[in-house]
Protein backbone atom coordinates (compact mmCIF):
# COMPACT_ATOMS: atom_id res chain seq x y z
CA UNK A 1 0.00 0.00 0.00
CA UNK A 2 2.79 2.40 0.92
CA UNK A 3 4.50 1.77 -2.40
CA UNK A 4 1.34 2.58 -4.36
CA UNK A 5 0.88 5.77 -2.36
CA UNK A 6 4.43 6.84 -3.19
CA UNK A 7 3.94 6.10 -6.89
CA UNK A 8 0.75 8.18 -6.82
CA UNK A 9 2.65 11.01 -5.12
CA UNK A 10 5.34 10.85 -7.79
CA UNK A 11 2.74 11.02 -10.57
CA UNK A 12 1.03 13.93 -8.82
CA UNK A 13 4.31 15.85 -8.81
CA UNK A 14 4.64 15.11 -12.54
CA UNK A 15 1.14 16.37 -13.34
CA UNK A 16 1.37 19.52 -11.22
CA UNK A 17 4.79 20.49 -12.57
CA UNK A 18 3.64 19.73 -16.13
CA UNK A 19 0.74 22.14 -15.63
CA UNK A 20 3.08 24.62 -13.96
CA UNK A 21 5.31 24.70 -17.04
CA UNK A 22 2.36 25.55 -19.25
CA UNK A 23 2.00 21.93 -20.39
CA UNK A 24 5.48 21.53 -21.84
CA UNK A 25 5.28 18.27 -23.79
CA UNK A 26 9.05 17.79 -23.75
CA UNK A 27 9.00 17.63 -19.97
CA UNK A 28 6.05 15.23 -20.02
CA UNK A 29 7.69 12.82 -22.46
CA UNK A 30 11.00 12.98 -20.61
CA UNK A 31 9.26 12.30 -17.28
CA UNK A 32 7.45 9.20 -18.50
CA UNK A 33 10.60 7.74 -20.06
CA UNK A 34 12.78 8.64 -17.08
CA UNK A 35 10.39 7.13 -14.53
CA UNK A 36 10.06 3.94 -16.57
CA UNK A 37 13.83 3.51 -17.01
CA UNK A 38 14.79 4.27 -13.40
CA UNK A 39 11.85 2.31 -12.05
CA UNK A 40 12.68 -0.78 -14.09
CA UNK A 41 16.35 -0.73 -13.04
CA UNK A 42 15.48 -0.18 -9.36
CA UNK A 43 12.78 -2.85 -9.43
CA UNK A 44 15.44 -5.38 -10.37
CA UNK A 45 17.45 -4.42 -7.28
CA UNK A 46 20.40 -2.95 -9.19
CA UNK A 47 20.96 -0.02 -6.81
CA UNK A 48 20.69 -2.13 -3.65
CA UNK A 49 24.18 -3.51 -4.17
CA UNK A 50 26.04 -1.07 -1.91
CA UNK A 51 29.37 -2.87 -2.24
CA UNK A 52 29.81 -2.11 -5.95
CA UNK A 53 32.50 0.40 -6.91
CA UNK A 54 31.81 3.09 -7.89
CA UNK A 55 28.52 3.21 -5.94
CA UNK A 56 25.66 2.47 -8.31
CA UNK A 57 23.58 5.22 -6.72
CA UNK A 58 25.83 7.73 -8.51
CA UNK A 59 24.39 6.52 -11.82
CA UNK A 60 21.01 7.90 -10.78
CA UNK A 61 22.06 11.21 -9.25
CA UNK A 62 24.36 12.54 -11.98
CA UNK A 63 21.93 11.83 -14.86
CA UNK A 64 19.10 13.35 -12.77
CA UNK A 65 21.05 16.58 -12.25
CA UNK A 66 21.93 16.83 -15.93
CA UNK A 67 18.42 15.99 -17.10
CA UNK A 68 16.70 18.51 -14.87
CA UNK A 69 19.28 21.17 -15.70
CA UNK A 70 18.12 20.66 -19.30
CA UNK A 71 14.48 20.94 -18.20
CA UNK A 72 15.30 24.22 -16.46
CA UNK A 73 16.75 25.60 -19.69
CA UNK A 74 13.87 24.63 -21.97
CA UNK A 75 10.98 25.80 -19.78
CA UNK A 76 9.63 29.11 -21.04
CA UNK A 77 9.07 31.66 -18.29
CA UNK A 78 6.21 33.34 -20.15
CA UNK A 79 4.23 30.08 -20.03
CA UNK A 80 4.78 29.32 -16.34
CA UNK A 81 1.69 29.04 -14.15
CA UNK A 82 2.79 30.14 -10.65
CA UNK A 83 -0.22 28.63 -8.87
CA UNK A 84 0.66 25.15 -10.10
CA UNK A 85 4.29 25.63 -9.08
CA UNK A 86 3.02 26.35 -5.58
CA UNK A 87 0.76 23.30 -5.77
CA UNK A 88 3.79 21.09 -6.52
CA UNK A 89 5.00 21.60 -2.96
CA UNK A 90 1.87 20.03 -1.52
CA UNK A 91 3.39 16.65 -2.42
CA UNK A 92 5.86 17.28 0.37
CA UNK A 93 3.09 16.39 2.84
CA UNK A 94 2.56 12.79 1.69
CA UNK A 95 6.31 12.41 1.14
CA UNK A 96 6.95 13.30 4.78
CA UNK A 97 4.26 10.94 6.02
CA UNK A 98 5.68 8.13 3.88
CA UNK A 99 9.21 8.83 5.13
CA UNK A 100 7.98 8.44 8.69
CA UNK A 101 6.43 5.08 7.84
CA UNK A 102 9.73 4.05 6.22
CA UNK A 103 11.48 5.04 9.45
CA UNK A 104 9.15 2.71 11.35
CA UNK A 105 10.11 0.00 8.86
CA UNK A 106 13.79 0.76 9.59
CA UNK A 107 14.50 1.88 6.03
CA UNK A 108 15.38 5.52 6.77
CA UNK A 109 16.80 7.20 9.89
CA UNK A 110 14.70 9.40 12.13
CA UNK A 111 16.88 12.32 11.01
CA UNK A 112 15.06 12.22 7.66
CA UNK A 113 11.60 12.58 9.21
CA UNK A 114 9.65 15.46 10.72
CA UNK A 115 10.73 14.12 14.12
CA UNK A 116 14.33 14.70 13.11
CA UNK A 117 15.79 17.45 10.92
CA UNK A 118 13.32 17.32 8.07
CA UNK A 119 11.17 20.47 8.03
CA UNK A 120 9.76 19.95 4.55
CA UNK A 121 6.29 19.23 5.88
CA UNK A 122 6.10 22.90 6.87
CA UNK A 123 6.56 23.85 3.22
CA UNK A 124 3.90 21.38 2.17
CA UNK A 125 1.32 22.70 4.64
CA UNK A 126 2.15 26.34 3.90
CA UNK A 127 1.91 25.63 0.14
CA UNK A 128 -1.61 24.30 0.68
CA UNK A 129 -2.56 27.42 2.65
CA UNK A 130 -1.01 29.73 0.04
CA UNK A 131 -2.78 27.93 -2.80
CA UNK A 132 -6.15 28.18 -1.06
CA UNK A 133 -5.54 31.89 -0.48
CA UNK A 134 -4.67 32.48 -4.14
CA UNK A 135 -7.72 30.56 -5.32
CA UNK A 136 -10.34 32.02 -2.99
CA UNK A 137 -9.04 35.48 -2.08
CA UNK A 138 -8.12 36.11 -5.72
CA UNK A 139 -5.27 38.34 -4.62
CA UNK A 140 -1.61 38.07 -5.45
CA UNK A 141 0.99 37.77 -2.72
CA UNK A 142 3.78 40.32 -2.51
CA UNK A 143 6.94 39.64 -4.47
CA UNK A 144 9.02 39.81 -1.29
CA UNK A 145 6.87 37.13 0.37
CA UNK A 146 7.09 34.86 -2.67
CA UNK A 147 10.86 35.28 -2.79
CA UNK A 148 11.31 34.65 0.94
CA UNK A 149 9.03 31.60 0.93
CA UNK A 150 10.80 29.99 -2.02
CA UNK A 151 14.25 30.66 -0.56
CA UNK A 152 13.17 29.11 2.74
CA UNK A 153 11.85 26.10 0.84
CA UNK A 154 15.17 25.69 -0.94
CA UNK A 155 17.04 25.86 2.36
CA UNK A 156 14.81 23.22 3.96
CA UNK A 157 15.10 20.96 0.93
CA UNK A 158 18.87 21.35 0.65
CA UNK A 159 19.26 20.54 4.33
CA UNK A 160 17.37 17.26 4.07
CA UNK A 161 19.13 16.33 0.82
CA UNK A 162 22.50 16.59 2.56
CA UNK A 163 21.21 14.60 5.53
CA UNK A 164 19.84 11.92 3.19
CA UNK A 165 23.16 11.66 1.31
CA UNK A 166 25.24 11.51 4.48
CA UNK A 167 22.86 8.87 5.89
CA UNK A 168 23.06 6.63 2.83
CA UNK A 169 25.28 3.51 2.72
CA UNK A 170 27.90 5.22 0.58
CA UNK A 171 31.65 5.78 1.09
CA UNK A 172 30.84 9.32 2.30
CA UNK A 173 28.31 8.20 4.93
CA UNK A 174 28.64 10.20 8.14
CA UNK A 175 25.25 9.75 9.82
CA UNK A 176 22.72 7.10 10.86
CA UNK A 177 25.02 4.07 10.84
CA UNK A 178 22.55 2.16 13.02
CA UNK A 179 19.66 2.73 10.60
CA UNK A 180 20.92 4.05 7.26
CA UNK A 181 18.91 5.48 4.41
CA UNK A 182 18.36 2.38 2.28
CA UNK A 183 14.81 3.11 1.07
CA UNK A 184 15.97 5.41 -1.74
CA UNK A 185 17.90 2.51 -3.27
CA UNK A 186 14.65 0.57 -3.72
CA UNK A 187 11.65 0.82 -6.01
CA UNK A 188 9.61 3.04 -5.94
CA UNK A 189 11.40 5.23 -3.38
CA UNK A 190 14.25 5.72 -5.85
CA UNK A 191 11.91 8.33 -7.35
CA UNK A 192 12.46 10.60 -4.36
CA UNK A 193 16.06 11.62 -5.20
CA UNK A 194 15.76 11.06 -8.96
CA UNK A 195 12.46 12.79 -9.65
CA UNK A 196 10.48 14.38 -6.81
CA UNK A 197 13.38 16.31 -5.29
CA UNK A 198 14.54 17.73 -8.67
CA UNK A 199 10.94 18.73 -9.49
CA UNK A 200 10.59 20.51 -6.16
CA UNK A 201 13.92 22.29 -6.70
CA UNK A 202 12.83 23.42 -10.15
CA UNK A 203 9.47 24.60 -8.82
CA UNK A 204 11.25 26.89 -6.37
CA UNK A 205 13.88 28.19 -8.79
CA UNK A 206 11.42 28.84 -11.63
CA UNK A 207 9.05 30.61 -9.24
CA UNK A 208 11.90 32.84 -8.08
CA UNK A 209 12.92 33.56 -11.67
CA UNK A 210 9.32 34.27 -12.66
CA UNK A 211 8.95 36.58 -9.68
Descriptive overview:
The radius of gyration is 17 Å and the shape is globular. Helix content is 64%, strand content 0%. The mean pLDDT is 92. It is an all-alpha fold. The longest helix is centred in the C-terminal third of the chain and has 24 residues, at 143-166. The protein has one domain (2-210). It has eight helices and no strands. Helix 1 packs antiparallel against helix 4 (82-88), helix 3 (58-74) runs parallel beside helix 8 and helix 4 (82-88) runs antiparallel to helix 6 (120-136).
Low-pLDDT stretches are none
Overall radius of gyration = 17 Å
The major pleated sheet works out as: none
Structural class: mainly alpha
Q: What share of the residues does DSSP label as strand, in percent? A: under 5%
- Per DSSP E runs of 2 or more residues, the count of β-strands stands at 0
Helicity range: 55-70%
Shape: globular
Q: How far apart are the first and last residues' alpha carbons, in Å?
A: 39 Å
Count of all domains? 1
- Annotation field: number of helices: 8
H and E order: HHHHHHHH
| pLDDT averaged residue by residue | 92
Summarize the structure.
By secondary structure, the chain is mostly helical.
